[in-house]
Prior knowledge:
Helix content: 55-70%
Shape: elongated
Structural class: mainly alpha
Amino acid sequence: MRFTIVFFYSETAEEKSGRGELMARKEMISSKMILDTAFQMAREEGLKNITARRVAERANCSTQPIFRTYQNMEDLMAGVYEKAAEFFQDYYSLYPRIGKVPFSNLGMAYIAFAREEKELFRMLFVPEKPGKSLYELLNGKTENVKSEIQRAAAQGCPDPGELFMKMWIFIHGAACMTLTGDYDLSDSQTLEMLESVYHSFLKI
């Protein structure tokens, strides 16, 4: 007579916990976490020094999750660029509206963004490689520029589109000066300057 002995294995609580932690760890390394990590690095130091290895070290993972989500680093950097563009839109939407003339609030926010977020400003508005147009970035999904042009037209400006272009050459120059430390006007002085420029161009 033969006897068959069957062993029943029951996973211990410690083993279950370890397996759960491993699964949780895999879930933690999500595409959002990778993108957020790369974006924060770009925000702090720009795009030049960002590599897959450095992103992985910052996210406390291997490079495998990065390339499981993104085809290559260019794909990841494109995601960072889009996130930066959205960040600027959020920045502008929350910026205090203290200017009374068209384009002044947009100009104030633009100059402040260059001062406070130098690397993101360089990425978006002074890029080494062509990206979205300046108008597309400024206008955004909420049509920021279009609404300011309509506002100028409503206040009697005969050619608000041309006035915007003239003002923006001035505003962009001021913003770029902040990158080199050559712009030292206060917010109140900046606002006064923008309103003066608007009225000056309006008379031309």
